[in-house]
User: What shape does this take?
Amino acid sequence: MTSPAPYQPILASGRWFAQLPTAFAEALVAMAQVRQLQTGEVLFLRGDAPCGLYAVVRGAISISGTGGKADEARAALLIRLEPPHWFGEISVFDNSARTHDAHATEASTLVHIPHEKLQAWLQQHPEHWHALALLLTDKLRAAFVAMEDLALLPAPQRLARRLVMMAEGYGQWTAQGRSRRVIGISQEQLSLMLAISRQTTNQILKDLESRHLVRVQRGEVEILDLTALRAACQ
Assistant: This one.
């Protein structure tokens, strides 16, 4: 089993982990295991028993779900998680089944805090539940923003805003002003994430390309002008 120690700088680049009380951060690293997933491999599925807390330190994990009758089932991609995102905290709190599916979008490395070990440690150190709750409330805020965007914004603004959010790591980085230039996501994934058709996604991206805001390539979107793209969200 690989030690999580080499991944501590990646964990520390994330806002939540960097702000943890020292005792909690050290405990998480001490409890941690490293897991490797291949492209398309399942981490957990909706209905699975709680299995702990995870942090992405390489690659990407897609959180998704399906609904409707078997012959009319529709898929929804909720979010694509990249380093240094933590996830899985809902089941840590309520000790209930997983709410969605988690797959490796590409070859990925995860730091895994096993459920039983984390629960036992928190039972002995209950003052640190508050720090874990901040991870949950951060996700809740993001969910409310996404719900508001879906209700109020037309598709072009929603797509532009999602690209900006992904470029800025959903606000999870500690470094101010940090952003990524290339976002590894396909048009199909974007359409599932925003609940719009593949054709509409393609049309919006072509418009953004014509304005020299992005460059679309197979399986990725390159941000050419983040400031202007942010303005396009309005």
In short: The chain has a mean pLDDT of 93. Residues 4 and 29 are 7 Å apart (CA to CA).
